[in-house]
Amino acid sequence: MTLFDALKAEIADEWQAYVRHPFVEQLGDGTLPLAAFQDYLVQDYLFLIQFARANALAAYQSRGLADIRRAADALEAILAETALHVRLTESWGIGREQLEAAPEKLATVAYTRYVLDCGQAGGLLDLEVALAPCAIGYGEIGARLAPRLAEHPEHPYRDWIHEYAAEEFQQTSRAASDHLDTLTGGTLPDRRFQELVTVFRAATRLETAFWQQALDDLGS
């Protein structure tokens, strides 16, 4: 069992609440109100800026070229991911300047700063575990939602689902999971594992709150 699978097993209920959140299910069915998706995507762009910083921090904390290269690859993947956000928001008449000037909402601040704090107060493994619900969880969500595209030829969120179901992102997710195992060195004392469970649980709950934020603003 990978470390990521072991962490998911420890917080099974919280994980399902995240990956099968009503926001995700409505997005997958194509029934999510456009206003909720727009709100989410603007916040997710701001979210990714902070995640880019987190991966830069991961590079700084790395002690070898392999880990530095891995952090650089993850940073590059995030920068590429923002292209989807810019393309979609521009189609709604929201330019890049307006996008970057949007205020961060509370759930956006909460998760992104939590991740950065994990990296600063802990170590590289703590940081990567805090990143995992996003870095790996989005791949799981994308793969699960992808079959729904065939059922809905005019799916309004096709581009988003395709982004995270595509092999490129799936490879990035697998690499993130493999990296967690590499960082443990093959062994992990139970006390240390429980520390990581605490980090992973908090990060997953904060990701769930990030979905809910977009629905709350609609009064859902």
From TrEMBL:
UniProt domain Thiaminase-2/PQQC: residue ranges: 11-216
Keywords associated with the record: Hydrolase, Thiamine biosynthesis
Q: Which SUPFAM superfamilies match?
A: Heme oxygenase-like
Q: Does the keyword Protein biosynthesis apply?
A: no
Give the superkingdom in one word: Bacteria
InterPro entries given in the database record: Haem_Oase-like_multi-hlx, Thiaminase-2/PQQC, Thiaminase_II, Thiamine_Salvage_TenA
What Enzyme Commission number does this protein have? 3.5.99.2
Q: Which reaction does it catalyse?
A: 4-amino-5-aminomethyl-2-methylpyrimidine + H2O = 4-amino-5-hydroxymethyl-2-methylpyrimidine + NH4(+); thiamine + H2O = 5-(2-hydroxyethyl)-4-methylthiazole + 4-amino-5-hydroxymethyl-2-methylpyrimidine + H(+)
Q: Which family does it belong to?
A: Belongs to the TenA family.
A GO molecular-function descriptor: thiaminase activity
Pathway(s) where this gene product acts: Cofactor biosynthesis; thiamine diphosphate biosynthesis
Purpose of the protein:
Catalyzes an amino-pyrimidine hydrolysis reaction at the C5' of the pyrimidine moiety of thiamine compounds, a reaction that is part of a thiamine salvage pathway.
Spell out the Pfam families in the cross-references. TENA_THI-4
Listed name of the protein: Aminopyrimidine aminohydrolase
